[in-house]
């Protein structure tokens, strides 16, 4: 079995309310090392066998058309993961 990781973040010009809330909470907790936070989402897609280039291409297409909202989000990465088991 193979695994593909897809990471999606809000576009930089879009207000990231969750990221703003996290940075405010960090500031209240006296954590001042960070200037900002962007919060996104991660998907793990499993394949029947080892991840092929065709699987990665299909994951890129799905990420752009189904997993993300292209008006407000960017697909940041699509990558095959090593078998961790």
Automatic annotation (TrEMBL):
Keywords, A to Z, come to: ATP-binding, Cytoplasm, Ligase, Nucleotide-binding, Purine biosynthesis
Domain of life the protein comes from:
Bacteria
Single GO term (MF): ligase activity
A biological process (GO) of this protein is: purine nucleotide biosynthetic process
The identity of this protein, by name, is Phosphoribosylformylglycinamidine synthase, purS protein
């Amino acid at each position: 079995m193979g695994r593909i990781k897809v990471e999606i973040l809000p576009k930089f010009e879009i207000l990231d309310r969750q990221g703003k809330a996290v940075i405010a909470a960090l500031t209240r907790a006296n954590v001042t090392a960070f200037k900002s936070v962007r919060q996104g989402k991660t998907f793990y897609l499993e394949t029947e066998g080892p991840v092929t280039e065709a699987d990665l291409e299909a994951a890129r297409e799905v990420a752009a058309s189904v997993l993300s909202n292209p008006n407000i989000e960017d697909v940041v990465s699509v990558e095959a993961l090593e078998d961790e088991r």
